[in-house]
Amino acid sequence: MYRNTPPTIHLKDYRPPEFLIDQVDLRFELDPDTTQVEATLAIRRNPAATRGDGNLRLDGEQLELEYLAIDDRPLARSEYRVEPEALILRRVPDRFRLVTRVRIHPARNTALEGLYQSGSMLCTQCEAEGFRRITYFLDRPDVMARFSTTLIADRDRFPILLANGNPGPSQDLGDGRHLARWDDPFPKPCYLFALVAGDLHQVEDRFTTASGREVSLRLFVEPEHHDQCEHAMRSLKKAMRWDEERYGREYDLDVYLIVAVSHFNMGAMENKGLNIFNAKYVLARPDTATDQDYLGIQGVIAHEYFHNWTGNRITCRDWFQLSLKEGFTVFRDQEFSADMGSRDVTRIADVRNLRNRQFPEDSGPLAHPVRPDAYIEINNFYTATVYEKGAELVRMLATLLGPDAFRRGTDLYFARHDGQAVTIEDFIACLAEASGRDLGPFLRWYAQPGTPELEVRDQWEDETGTYRLTIRQRIPATSDRPSSGPLPIPVAVGLLDAKGRDLPLHLADEPAPTPAGTRVLELHTDETSFRFVGLAARPIPSLLRGFSAPVKVRYDYSDQDLVFLMTHDSDGFNRWDAAQSLAQRLLLQGVSEPNTPLPSGFIDAFRRTLTDEDADPGLRAEILTLPSEAYLGDQMETVDVEGIHRARETLIGQIATTLRAELLATYRANQDPGPYRLTPLAIGRRALKNLALAYLMHTSDDETLALCQAQFAAHQNMTDVMAALRWLVEAGGETADQALDAFYRRWSDDALVVDKWFGIQALSQRDDTLLRVESLLDHEAFTMTNPNRLRSLVGTFCLMNQLRFHAASGAGYVFLVDRVLELDPKNPQIAARLVQALAQWRRFDETRRGLMRGQLERLFHTPDLSKDVYEVVAKTLG
Ligand code: ARG
Ligand code: ZN
């Protein structure tokens, strides 16, 4: 039990800061055990704020204060007070220079917030509130200051010393130590502060911006990874060019630094001029990284780069506005990835991710608006809702405005708010002004939690050739807040004729049709009707093309309609979506009535897609991938863990048996003995081949097992090796153990590959998986102190293995909570993420519900939980 409930912070309580900080000069004497931080702050009263009690309260946690002076006069004990989370200075002048000196202990920092040690290097993570663990400061994003950073450290242990901005003079201090100075000319909030010290390998490249600025690009990695940097560097240059072309945004410093660290809580961090990355999103070589890893790196490198404008030059006024930078930046990285690869496949992956992660969040106990209005621990709000749903909101704005007005709007935003800390309203106002549209109602999207549903009905009038679509929006009720009113929703639709061709679209109140293809209908009220005229026969509607809004569509398609759309729709996304809807329908039927025959045409449509040489192989692979067990569970009133598994396995088996010949042919036709290439075609062919392998291995016989073993042994690239290993592990027995041993022996020195080795075992659907996972906790390579390692074993099992985590015995739940209790005192951020494996507890049968609740209560009654875990547990229990 939390002794005193931690306070809730509310958006409505926002007040401008009473004091501002114009300049910060930091001086670090770095040492893993004890680092000394001296900060000189130029502070003044904020003319725009109301006067308080005259005291100044600076944030600070786990700091040992050694020295404190105002305008060079050390303060007496009566002039200040040190609290666990603050330093309070009594009656300060209106303008003054504050010097503080504190001691901190990086090597003891297991939370990985603030300054910490990763391997032999020292690095920082300050977002959201880590800077207060480095020095006393106004740790809030609307306090923007110029920073200079002086780093002093042992020259042999830490030859590389990095901080934000441009490099200044460096110096040998003669006593074995050296000094480096960095100056950041751009005012920034302290969450963007960073430093790195280490013995690192450097890869250098250059980039000339559109206006001719020369930028030195430098990637820093631990020396053994020197040959895994090429892809990250190439991705960075592509991202820099793309942002110039698509948004007119150029880079603004002389250097752009990226450091890969092996201990990192999240993906990466956009610190000004000095991005710090989880090594997972930097390092790649064809034999160590899968296609998904490569794409992930490209996306995250771009994401952090794009933050330089959407996040750094323009930042958030307060943390409730987090989606201002994250939603927009995710939208930007998604579009970049779509431009670099296959647009359909990229969109499908993004939407699958949204549906698998954000939809459940939005319907469960942790649901919150894209702009939350209250939090206990802000780190709990780096969520799929703030990021991915936030990106969908920006996407809808771009769709509603069209490319030209959207670009005018973003140009205006960058011009008007450069150097400021702003709100979501400020962003929307620029888009509204540039487009002449009233976007007031759109703000409801930021305030309204829950996934809206669109109920679509249609009506065909043969005599007049008129087709009427009626769309009703329904916003699920949430207990504690009234509906915000109807949402503006762009619905991209097409109408298909009997041959599958797009029809021209002629709305009744318009003089002429728009050309055959897609058009965006807008919903502004609870119910809207659209009358299409001039049609020769009843069309088949293709709704919400490209997933033009983050909603669920309810329309009564027949099985035959879905087969038709899956094979004919000109919108690749909707071909996939039709296949998903149909598969979902069959699978859920299979759960309740296991022996229902497959509708005619289903296997046939599968066969046609498999063998359709004209279509993008990547898209075909997506269409032929069945929805996951967890996604199916989310579609049920009560999740039937075993029933879903059984139904899904049965359908896979039927497909595998019926289409064995085609699957084998597809497998063979898409083998590519050439060098690894990262083109959409090459990626798509690997995906299709490995999909065929997955089906074939389901009914594994000697022939397919041999194929799989050969693929594993060939070491063509990590994509193929992992695909083969996955099914060898699933096959079990000696084959599995041999493959796992061989893999581990080969890769035991490469941490990211060892993570895959743990992950693949945690993912296994075999019935002894929990036992295996438990014994892997004692493996020489397992450690709770590396977040990637922890996620690969514990995270994968609890969050991605529905069948085994939710074993009816409840053993998975006990296992999870044991780990959370072990982890919480050390790394509360990661502990709070893990607890979310129990967030859907109310959706399960009574037995499991009881078992999960029991474990949640066990947590709730633990003394001294972190704020992070407390908040998640308290909300989950409700
Ligand atoms: N701003 C970073 C990104 O989106 C994420 C950092 C989140 N860190 C945290 N501790 N909550 O790229
Ligand atoms: Zn981000």
Question: In a nutshell, what does this entry contain?
Answer:
The chain has 878 residues and is of the alpha+beta class. It contains 26 helices and 31 strands.
Question: Which terms would index this structure?
Answer:
alpha+beta; 878 residues; 31 strands; binds arginine; 40% helix; 26 helices; 5-stranded mixed sheet; binds zinc ion
Description:
It is a single chain. The protein is α+β, with helices and mostly antiparallel strands and 878 residues long. Helices cover 40% and strands 21% of the residues. It contains 26 helices and 31 strands. The strands form eight sheets. An eight-stranded mixed sheet has the order 6-5-9-3-2-12-15-14, with no helix packed on it. Strands 17-18-19-21-20 form a five-stranded mixed sheet, with helices on one face. Strand 7 and strand 8 (86-89) form a beta hairpin. Helix 3 runs antiparallel to helix 4 and helix 5 (384-417) packs across helix 6. The mean pLDDT is 97. Zinc ion binds at residues 303, 307, 326, 329.
